[in-house]
């Protein structure tokens, strides 16, 4: 048998050549007439941090800017705006003042051609607003209704069955009476009387009932004070799924005090504004079944702006603040001491170990029971990470000698002593 | 017969009502009952708490004007163009270049900066890739004068679209991040790592010091002779 090594070679070659052809054709296209394509990528790479096309960002909106100003003046401004202002250009000075005296980064690296491309991109007419895809929305709405209809229909069928059963038994009884058959039940001893008279059965069943009652009572008392699964409705619908899951923002970015203090901290709104000054609209996927539409998310961002007093049109703070009353979910009783930094920084425990898969939670809920047993169990199982820590290495040697164990757990280090957490 | 039927239906109704009321107790949106609720909440003000005596009923407030909170060092450069220029020119990193500082700096950079600036500092963080932010410049871009002071100043006050990160980091954190950023800039430019050159120069100066010392010792010993 002859080995066929390059069976797909011909097809691969043709695809490759096609790719090369396409690449070069777009290249030439961009060079000749379509400054727009090159301009778009340049705009996104250099300008979009501060400028948007139709909305004021840190800098002014840029659509149609090429018609407002002289081309040569624009070259000068983009390459060195501060120099232009210092040279006493009145236009430059007014623009600088209009935009809160924020300095535009100089771009000496951009050639006049590059700037032409960017201006070509920014001079494009505004695309017509997208007509919302009504068909798909209706479809999805139908899905929601369909479920309700199905449940309703099932309930109706069930009800009909019950009624029919009742009617059938009634007619049967009537038939019996009509046909002259006596119902003998009255002459028989009723079941419950027979039951009461049988003392052994009474004893056994009452013991059984008591045990069942005790079981449920125990269960009920044990769950008092445990809030596992608690998921309150927050004043602003903040989705950990979008922030920590989709966008992979580190937990510590917002909960920065978890690294170095007792509490993980509810981030203040200025932390939100670090990103949301720039991100005022939601562009991710929608979940229509649950009502998480783009509008819904945009409303939440609007609530943030309202609370922090941010004027989107003016891109400035109004100074009217309305603190958001977030609802605390994880709450240890006050007679327990818990320190986040000790777990996060010293022990290096992942946030998810206690808080569960937060990055998948659209609505945050308490993952762990937060009971004492839960704490102690983890302390008993967790080995202390002693790598590269001289202090722990010494302690580890002494402790392993004292307890006669190979590895030292958090419990061995005192993680089981009452006074460590209760004092 | 009819009476027993009635009793049955009453029993069923009672059962349904009880089971419904039991299941309705397990509402995820309200917290559970507690034994001794007054032992759960303290008399003292709680972190992030809500108390009537405070403005806006908020525990989280800024320090009183004219005071400095513990562990905070005033930053003297103003949030103006002149302040930035001054910081860029003269502000220097007070921390020593050590492996521990560099490691910490990298860790902190990944948390606070990497989402936008990218783990390599090329401006290609995940938020840029997902087009939430656009146009984040690379540290290696031409015409950018990145120094100790300019990095620290940008973290303190923010710059253009970037917000201030002073509330999330402390002084030491920021200087550690600064070290890492300078390293990233050097590696993007294809130069030897900034920290390595610093260490080398430190070693060299130490050598000089020791040489000076030894020569001094020699001279003293010669004098003694």
Note down, in words, how this protein is organized:
The complex is a heterodimer of chains A (423) and B (225). With 423 residues, chain A is an all-alpha fold. Chain A contains 20 helices and two strands. Chain A has helices spanning 9-32, 35-47, 65-68, 71-79, 81-86, 90-98, 112-122, 134-178, 191-197, 199-222, 240-246, 251-254, 269-276, 294-308, 340-346, 351-355, 372-381, 390-403, 411-415, 418-421; strands at 310-311, 316-317. In chain A, helix 2 (35-47) packs across helix 7 (112-122) and helix 13 (269-276) crosses helix 14 (294-308). The longest helix of chain A has 45 residues, at 134-178. The radius of gyration of chain A is 36 Å and the shape is flat. Chain B has helices at residues 2-25, 81-90, 99-112, 114-117, 126-129, 148-157, 171-188, 194-224. Chain B is an all-alpha fold and 225 residues long. Chain B has a domain at 81-208: Orthogonal Bundle (Cytochrome Bc1 Complex, Chain D, domain 2), CATH 1.10.760.10. At the A-B interface, helix 2 and helix 13 of A face helix 3 of B.
């Amino acid at each position: 048998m002859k080995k066929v090594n390059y069976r797909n070679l011909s097809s691969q070659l043709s695809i490759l050549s096609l790719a090369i052809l396409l690449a070069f054709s777009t290249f030439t296209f961009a060079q000749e007439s379509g400054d727009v394509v090159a301009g778009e990528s340049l705009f996104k790479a250099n300008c979009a941090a501060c400028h948007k096309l139709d909305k004021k960002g840190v800098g002014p909106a840029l659509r149609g800017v090429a018609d407002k100003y002289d081309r040569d003046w624009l070259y000068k401004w983009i390459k060195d705006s501060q120099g232009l202002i210092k040279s006493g250009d009145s236009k430059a000075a007014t623009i600088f003042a209009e935009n809160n005296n924020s300095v535009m980064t100089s771009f000496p690296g951009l050639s006049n051609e590059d700037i032409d491309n960017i201006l070509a991109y920014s001079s494009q007419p505004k695309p017509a607003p997208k007509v919302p895809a009504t068909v798909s929305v209706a479809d999805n709405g139908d899905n929601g209704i369909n479920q309700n209809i199905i449940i309703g229909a099932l309930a109706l069928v069930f009800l009909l069955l019950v009624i029919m059963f009742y009617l059938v038994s009634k007619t049967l009884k009537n038939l019996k009476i009509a046909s002259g058959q006596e119902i003998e039940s009255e002459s028989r001893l009723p079941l419950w009387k027979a039951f009461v008279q049988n003392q052994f059965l009474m004893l056994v069943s009452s013991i059984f009932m008591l045990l069942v009652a005790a079981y449920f009572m125990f269960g009920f008392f044990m769950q008092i004070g445990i809030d596992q699964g608690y998921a309150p409705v927050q004043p602003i619908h903040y989705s950990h799924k979008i922030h920590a899951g989709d966008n992979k923002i580190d937990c510590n970015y917002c909960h920065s005090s978890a690294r170095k203090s007792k509490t993980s901290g509810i981030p203040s709104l200025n932390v939100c504004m670090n990103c949301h000054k720039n991100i005022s609209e939601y562009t991710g996927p929608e979940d229509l079944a649950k009502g998480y539409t783009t509008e819904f998310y945009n409303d939440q961002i609007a609530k943030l702006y309202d609370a922090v007093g941010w004027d989107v049109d003016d891109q400035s703070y109004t100074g009217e603040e309305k603190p958001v009353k977030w609802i605390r979910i994880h709450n240890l009783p006050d007679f327990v001491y818990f320190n986040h930094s000790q777990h996060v920084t010293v022990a290096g425990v992942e946030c998810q170990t206690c808080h569960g898969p937060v990055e998948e939670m659209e609505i945050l809920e308490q993952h762990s029971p937060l009971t004492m047993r839960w704490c102690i169990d983890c302390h008993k199982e967790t080995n202390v990470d002693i790598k590269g820590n001289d202090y722990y290495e010494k302690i580890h040697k002494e402790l392993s000698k004292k307890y006669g164990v190979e590895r030292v757990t958090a419990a061995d280090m005192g993680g089981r002593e009452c006074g460590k957490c209760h004092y | 017969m009819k009476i027993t039927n009635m009793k049955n239906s009453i029993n069923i109704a009672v059962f349904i009502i009880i089971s419904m009321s039991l299941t309705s107790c397990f509402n995820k949106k309200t917290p559970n009952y507690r034994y001794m609720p007054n032992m759960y909440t303290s008399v003292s003000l709680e972190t992030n708490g809500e108390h009537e005596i405070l403005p806006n009923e908020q525990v989280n407030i800024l320090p009183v004007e004219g005071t400095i909170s513990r562990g905070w060092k005033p930053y003297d450069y103003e949030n103006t163009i002149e302040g930035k220029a001054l910081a860029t020119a003269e502000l220097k990193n007070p921390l020593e270049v050590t492996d521990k500082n560099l490691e910490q700096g990298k860790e902190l950079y990944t948390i606070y900066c990497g989402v936008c600036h990218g783990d390599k500092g090329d401006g290609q963080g995940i938020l840029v890739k997902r087009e939430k932010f656009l146009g984040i410049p690379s540290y290696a871009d031409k015409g950018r004068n990145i120094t100790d002071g300019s990095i620290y100043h940008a973290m303190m006050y923010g710059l253009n679209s970037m917000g201030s990160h002073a509330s999330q980091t402390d002084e030491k954190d920021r200087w550690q991040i600064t070290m890492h950023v300078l390293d990233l800039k050097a590696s993007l430019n294809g130069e030897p790592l900034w920290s390595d050159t610093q260490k080398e120069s430190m070693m060299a100066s130490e050598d000089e010091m020791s040489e000076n010392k030894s020569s001094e010792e020699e001279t003293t010993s010669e004098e003694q002779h």
